[in-house]
Structure formats: structure tokens, C-alpha cells
Amino acid sequence: MAPRNEIITAAELPARLAPLEGWHGDTTGISRTCSVGYDTAIRIVGEVGQAAIELEHRPDIDIRWDRLTST
Description:
By secondary structure, the chain is an alpha+beta fold. The chain has helices spanning 13-17, 38-55; strands at residues 24-26, 29-34, 61-64, 67-70. It is globular, with a radius of gyration of 13 Å.
């Protein structure tokens, strides 16, 4: 994993995202959308939230009735 303060260039980004299933984006941001039920999405948000606190990161998370998107 890259250090939190490391800047990843546009040229490096595709190689960095390649091993991360479902993630895409550019140097302005990355995101992933998962097709999950609402109850599963709520559980995932709790897990992502705990990891985000530990990493001092604050992702944007969007929950819809059949999908979850994190940016």
C-alpha cells in the first residue's frame, strides 16, 4: 500500500488500480460500485467506516437500494 502522503501520477495510476478488483478512476479520485442488498451495504459501511477512522481517511459513500458506491 502506498504511504498516505504519496502522490500517484496519472501514468502510475492504471498499474496501481489493476490488482484492485472493481476500482477505477483518475488522479482526481477513484471509486468502486458494488451490487449488494441494502442490509449488506449498511454492514459494509460500518466496516469501511472503521478502516477509514484508522487510516484518517473520509470516503464518500452512496447507498442505493441495490448498490453501494465508495469514492
